[in-house]
Amino acid sequence: MTNQELLTKIAEKFPAVAESKPAAGALPAFNLTLELPSASIAEVCAWLKTGELKFDYLASLSGVDLKDKLQVVYHLYSIELKHKLILKVNLDRLNPELSSVNSVWQAANWHEREAYDMFGVKFTGHPYPERILTAEGFEGYPLLKDFIAKPDQYD
Amino acid sequence: MGLVLDKAPYIIEMMPGGSYVVTSMDWVINWSRKSSLWPLSFGLACCAIEWMADVGSRNDFDRFGVFPRPSPRQADLIFISGTLTKKMASRVRRLYEQMAEPRYVISMGSCANSGGPFYDSYSVVKGVDKVLPVDVYIAGCPPRPEAVLLSILKLQEKIMTETISHKND
C-alpha cells in the first residue's frame, strides 16, 4: 500500500490524525509519518493492528526530547502487507503521560519501560511500569536534555 | 625439567660432603601459582572478544598455564574485560568475593582502567579500581592479544616477588 493510500484510509477513520511535516531544512521522511493527539493513541493503535491495515509488528517505540516538549515515536510494520508507518505523539514536558500499547503489541512492554527510564514518560495501563536499564535507586531521567548526573561512589 | 635446571641456583644448594636440593618455600609456591593462573570465563564488553582471541589457538595463553574456568570458586584471576557499568559493579564485586585467595585482577582496556570514552557518562564506573584491587592494567581500546599476554607475564613477575606472609598490593 502506498503512503497516500495509507494516509487516506487512516484519515477516513481518524480525522484528528495529521501528516507530520518535516522540520525546516530536514529531508522528507521516506515512510508516512503521522502526528496524533496523545489521548487517541490506544484506540488508533488497536485499530491499526486489528483493522484492514494489519500493522502486526511494533519495530520500535522510542522517546525524544525536543526541549519544549517530549515526543514518543512508534515505528510500525505489517509483515503480511509489507507497509510501514511512523506515529508521533507530542507530550507535555512537565507531565508526560500516555496510554500503554502493551495490550496491542507485547513488544511495547520493554520499549515503554525504556522510554520511562530514559525520559520519564509514564505509560498508564502498563503491567510493570518500572525502570529497566539504569541501576537500582537511580534518580532522574538521563536522556532529558536538562539532566545532570549526580556523582556517587563510582565517580 | 628445563625450567627446573634454569632455576637451579634458586633451589639447589651445595652442602659439604655432597649436594642435596633445598627448596625455598616461597619460590616453589610462587612458581606453582604463577604457572597455573586460572582466569574466570567472564567478559563485559568488546574487550572480552579480544580476550577470547587469547584463548584461541593462535595466541593460546594456555602456554602460560592460563586456562579459563567457568566458576569463580576455581578461578585465581579475573580479567575485567570491558566497560563496567554502575549496575554491574556490585555483581562484579560479588564474583570477585566468590573467588578463593590468592586472587588477582587484571584491568583490560581503557574502559576498565578509567571509564575510557564513557568517562562523562551517568552509568559507567570511572575505573574498575573503584570496586576491586587491580594488579595489572592493560592499555588499549581494545588491547592487542599480545598486550594481554604481556599482562600475564607481568602478573607472573609480580607473583614471584610475593612471600608467604605478604601479598603485594
Structure commentary:
The complex is a heterodimer of chains A (155) and B (169). Chain A has 155 residues and is of the alpha/beta class. Chain A has a single domain, classed as NADH:ubiquinone oxidoreductase Nqo5 subunit (Beta Polymerase, domain 2). In chain A, 21% of the residues lie in helices and 24% in strands. Chain A has three helices and seven strands; from the N terminus they run H-E-E-H-E-E-E-E-H-E. Chain A has helices spanning 3-13, 41-50, 108-119, and strands spanning 18-19, 33-36, 57-65, 70-77, 84-91, 97-99, 122-124. In chain A, strands 1-2-5-4-3 form a five-stranded mixed sheet, covered by helices on one side. In chain A, a hairpin with a 6-residue loop joins strand 4 (70-77) and strand 5. The longest helix of chain A has 12 residues, at 108-119. The radius of gyration of chain A is 17 Å and the shape is globular. Chain B is of the alpha/beta class. In chain B, 38% of the residues lie in helices and 12% in strands. Chain B contains seven helices and five strands. Chain B has a three-stranded parallel sheet. In chain B, helix 3 packs antiparallel against helix 7. The mean pLDDT of chain B is 86. The chains are: A alpha/beta (155), B alpha/beta (169). Chains A and B meet through loops of A and helix 5 of B.
Explain briefly what this protein structure is.
Chain A has 155 residues and is of the alpha/beta class.
Structural class based on helices, strands and sheet pairing of chain A = alpha/beta
* End-to-end Cα distance of chain B: 32 Å
What would you call the quaternary organization?
A: heterodimer
pLDDT under 50 segments of chain B (min length 5)? Answer: none
Bin the helical content of chain A: 10-25%
